[in-house]
Amino acid sequence: MGLSDSDPKPYAASRIETYDAIRSWYQANLDRFASDPVHASHIKDCRDYVKALPPGSKASEQQINDLFHQVVMGVLEWGYHESDGHYKMAAYAEVGQQKRGSTSA
Fold this sequence. Notes:
This protein is mainly alpha-helical. It contains four helices and no strands.
């Protein structure tokens, strides 16, 4: 199930800000979700990927685009509807994808 029209979206955030929000949330929550039997195998599949994500200021466009893709339909999809208290991971990823090619990094 995708985002609802009523889900807030971080339209004012840059691509790097959306990337960093996603990166920070996944890195901070790996261990919490690893202890959940429903998510444990997903965490095992993505742990190395998440831990290796560079900060947005050092990430390539390919790394940024890949992270957005992984949240929407890849190994990070398990956190799609999870929130950092501001926005869902999917909202960050979708806004980041929409801003691809824009002049604001």
